[in-house]
């Protein structure tokens, strides 16, 4: 929405932010009863031992401007937003809270079309990556189907900041976007933690869990996903300033 306001001239500068505070135990207790929380206190995205999320607090804000305005103002530009896309699981699953392979693939494809990019242009994917068996399997399958096709010349890295800081819930989309932004700016992809036995959906694919720090090319493009409990899906494609 911020990008749309900037492109339409509705505003010259936008602040996009979120805050998540855990002020009582009610939701944590409910998640524990539902078996949603990881038993060992670790998010293990993409690993066969993944068994749930870890709740976390967070606050994050981004300043977004049109590229030419940022240059004119002498701002430090960390990354450029190439495309954004929003979707919904709608009728593609039996349960609104279940991950949808069909809806995710459609969303990724739409974002690439909006950005005028090929799937092979994307260097890495910052997944929603909750560390749940059902969610991880569907998301990695969707990423591999769209971004990890065999005609890629280089492996596609995938990871989740939730393994590093936990699930910040209403902030988790921004957390992933900030991680990806700093990665393309610094040309270093931070490691996704707690991965010792990757799930079978990664086998035979050109998709690699970034279990250690990875160097990125000067011109990198990242895809970032964030999904909501009500079925909303969001996806961004960002690129290093050198690519703009």
Overview of the molecule:
Helix content is 28%, strand content 22%. It contains seven helices and ten strands. It has a six-stranded mixed beta sheet with strand order 3-10-9-4-5-7, with helices on both faces. A two-stranded antiparallel ribbon has the order 1-2. α5 links the parallel β4 and β5. The radius of gyration is 17 Å and the shape is globular. The mean pLDDT is 93.
Notable traits:
244 residues, alpha/beta, 6-stranded mixed sheet, two-stranded antiparallel sheet, 7 helices, 10 strands, 22% strand
User: Taking strands numbered 1, 2, ... along the chain, how are they ordered across the largest sheet?
Assistant: 3-10-9-4-5-7
The mean pLDDT is 93
Distance between the termini: 21 Å
**What class would the helix/strand composition place it in?**
alpha/beta
> Largest sheet, if any?
6 strands, mixed
Shape: globular
The helix count comes to 7
**Approximate strand percentage:** 15-25%
- Helicity range of the residues? 25-40%
H/E element string? HEHEHEHEHEHHEEEEE
Number of strand segments: 10
Spatial extent as radius of gyration = 17 Å
Low-confidence stretches: none
Q: What's the short version?
A:
By secondary structure, the protein is of the alpha/beta class. It has helices at 2-8, 26-33, 67-72, 101-115, 133-146, 162-165, 172-186; strands spanning 13-20, 58-65, 80-88, 124-126, 156-159, 188-189, 207-209, 214-215, 221-227, 232-239. Helices cover 28% and strands 22% of the residues.
List the helices and strands and how they pair.
Elements: H1 2-8, E1 13-20, H2 26-33, E2 58-65, H3 67-72, E3 80-88, H4 101-115, E4 124-126, H5 133-146, E5 156-159, H6 162-165, H7 172-186, E6 188-189, E7 207-209, E8 214-215, E9 221-227, E10 232-239
Parallel strand pairs: 4-5, 4-9, 5-7
Antiparallel strand pairs: 1-2, 3-10, 6-8, 9-10
Helix pairs in contact: 4-5
């Amino acid at each position: 929405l911020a990008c749309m306001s900037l492109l339409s001239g509705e505003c010259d500068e936008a602040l996009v932010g979120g805050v998540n505070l855990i002020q009582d135990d009610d939701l944590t207790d409910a998640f524990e009863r539902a078996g949603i929380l990881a038993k060992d206190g670790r998010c293990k995205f993409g690993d066969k031992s993944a068994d749930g999320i870890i709740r976390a607090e967070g606050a994050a804000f981004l300043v977004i401007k049109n590229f030419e305005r940022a240059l004119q103002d002498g701002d430090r530009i960390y990354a450029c937003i190439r495309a954004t896309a929003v979707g919904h699981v709608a009728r593609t699953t039996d349960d609104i809270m279940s991950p949808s392979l069909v809806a995710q693939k459609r969303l990724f494809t739409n974002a690439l079309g909006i950005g005028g990019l090929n799937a092979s242009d994307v260097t890495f994917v910052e997944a929603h990556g909750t560390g749940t068996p059902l969610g991880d399997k569907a998301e990695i399958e969707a990423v591999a189907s769209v971004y990890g096709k065999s005609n890629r010349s280089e492996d596609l890295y995938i990871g989740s900041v939730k393994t590093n800081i936990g699930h910040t819930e209403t902030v988790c989309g921004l957390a992933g976007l900030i991680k990806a932004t700093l990665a393309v700016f610094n040309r270093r992809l931070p490691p996704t933690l707690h991965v010792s036995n990757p799930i079978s959906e990664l086998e035979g694919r050109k998709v690699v869990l970034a279990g250690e720090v990875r160097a990125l090319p000067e011109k990198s493009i990242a895809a970032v996903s964030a999904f909501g409990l009500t079925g909303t899906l969001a996806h961004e494609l960002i690129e290093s300033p050198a690519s703009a």
